[in-house]
Amino acid sequence: MSLASNNNLDWHAAQAGQQIIKTTKTRRNNGKEEEIKANDVENLATKALGVLQENGVYAAFLYLYSRSENEQHIAKPAEQVLKFLTDAICNDLDRLLLVKQLWEQTLIYARYGAKARGVEEDAKKAKTEIEKAKSQP
Known about the structure:
Strand order of the largest sheet: 1-2
CATH topology: Peroxidase, domain 1
Number of helices: 6
Strand content: 5-15%
CATH architecture: Orthogonal Bundle
Number of strands: 2
Oligomer: single chain
Shape: elongated
Number of domains: 1
Distance between the termini: 56 Å
Order of helices and strands: HEEHHHHH
Low-confidence stretches: none
């Protein structure tokens, strides 16, 4: 099923949430690949969701763009987004409310996806520590 023909907005939110989790596993830093902790992704998604719910779509984008360099790899900026947001979204209340609802659902899915990834990371770390302890005399 193509994206254009699928009107199930929850499906789109789930796909976007999965994509956020997929693209926030690692980042490049000084030519090296670094792991991004699931907890960092979860925290940023939670904070962005709070700003979105309390202050709206435009404020949430500004919040993400204002992140420190350490968080910027999770909240990637795109300068044209704010202009598009103002011109095409914020001037139409129905569209604005739809975008807000869809983005809320996406961030919720991303937050829970990050939480699940964190559980997976913790289990892998615990297994490694157990194996390490067994190999020590």
